[in-house]
Amino acid sequence: MTIRMAVGCALIIVTAGPALAAAAPSDEYPNEKVGPRVLNVEPNVPPKSGKLLEAQGKWLNDHGVSPHLSMTEIYLRNPSAGLYTGNHESLTIFAIGADFNLDKLIGLPGGTIHFEQLYVPWTSNLDYGGQVGDVIAGKPGPYIPNVSHLSLFTYEQKLLDDKLSIEAGKSNAGNYFALPLCNVPLGCVNAILQDTAGINPPPYANWGARVGYDFSPAVRAQVGAWRSNNAYPFTNGWERDVGESGGTLSTVYLANLAYRTDYRMQAYPQTFEVLGFHNNGQQTDPYFTVNGTSKVTDTTAAADTRKGVTGFYLGAKKTVWRQDGGATQDLNPTAVAAYASLTHTLDEGTTNGVGTQGNAGLILSAPFRSRPFDSYSVNVNWAQLTSREQRFLEEAHAASGGGSYRPGRNEYAVALDANFILTDSIVLSPFVLRTWGASSWLNPYTGVNPRDGYAAGLLLHVQFDEMLGLNSRH
């Protein structure tokens, strides 16, 4: 597998282990989780008492240590979608970490150390992303060749009555910016933010720093900068620089403004986020060489390059209906929320070749009062390749003996998903999607025309710290 293909196949492990640990307790951020757990579906179930290690957990918390231990099992399959159908992928991901409250430990008010180490001991068919090949169904196919990853190691300092937060160290910018709005975050993986902006998908941590300020309990502004390695599948997070990954380093600059409320703050909660990004790295043109020719046909000339890329993200979500009309204080009402997001890059010649991505959907929460924590969703996804990427795919397909390349620039998908909250520490999340206009974006030289069809997945997440009573979220 080439580095280009590996980078394309890597996942934002959005409902997996790296999204599970080392985050601030919910009472510190009433309207927004921060840290890796922002990308994880958590059981919003009041915890039971009398758990096995509850006393030890309370002692640790009283002394400033909040441990995190979780496992996520991911299974993906493409029965009829993509370049090579009938394949599957599975991964087992463990996350081990802790938050260290320095006020309790050494008397330093507002100081916290966040740490998380990830282990992926069992994997099957890491080539799944390339076998599917497209942006919507293929990009979420995880490519994690290393067993161990440092996914978080930062120092955070809060000031000004905790309104100001300054954090620096090894982390992923997706823990704080462009937070997913969909029901199962694996359904809204953002190839532009991961690759073009250079955020890199979790579990890949980079050196970075951010400053966030809460103007009110609902309004937060942030700025941040992270180093980015374009060969992130081959990093382990402990590198001081590029390490042995063979990648190229760049810096991504991010700034956002977000308004977020929840059911504790508003009967009909809503979210709005606007984000701008700039990456100063060298972009390799997907089509042109330095001679102005096609890099498929002119193999002796170097690819054209340019410095930097800029783009933006817009996202909104609002609860539009409640069965109780908003008249009760129920924190888990039967309700419907609508959401939409749009990401766009302003540069045609980006290496990634994806120009615009959008997704929108409806989430139905707690339709059955006997299961007040479950949720169901229908969503649509859209990805548009740049015109240069499209020309490259067409010529690469023909050069590989594939003849006429059928897909156009636009790909669409409709998906159904659900979160079944089995206990206060176990979540089961199935999904199925149907694609139209699937491309060979991740595997351009196969000479095979991709098929529109179905792909599916199943995620099982177990929060062991909660199950054992070591770290209650409530």
Tally of DSSP β-strands: 16
Q: What's the domain count?
A: 1
Binned strand content: 35-45%
Largest sheet: 16 strands, antiparallel, barrel
Shape: globular
Unreliable stretches (pLDDT < 50, length at least 5) are: 1-31
CATH topology: Porin
Gap from first CA to last CA? 45 Å
CATH architecture: Beta Barrel
How many helices? The count is: 7
- The CATH H-level superfamily is Carbohydrate-selective porin OprB
Strand order of the largest sheet: 1-2-3-4-5-6-7-8-9-10-11-12-13-14-15-16
Protein described:
The chain has helices at 3-9, 54-62, 102-106, 128-132, 191-196, 387-399, 464-468; strands at 65-78, 87-101, 111-124, 148-159, 164-171, 206-214, 219-229, 249-260, 270-289, 303-322, 335-345, 354-365, 375-385, 410-421, 426-436, 454-463. The protein is mainly beta and 474 residues long. The protein has a single domain (3-468), classed as Carbohydrate-selective porin OprB (Porin, Beta Barrel), CATH 2.40.160.180. It has a 16-stranded antiparallel β-barrel. A hairpin with a 4-residue loop joins strand 14 (410-421) and strand 15. The N and C termini lie far apart (45 Å). Mean pLDDT is 90; it is low at 1-31.
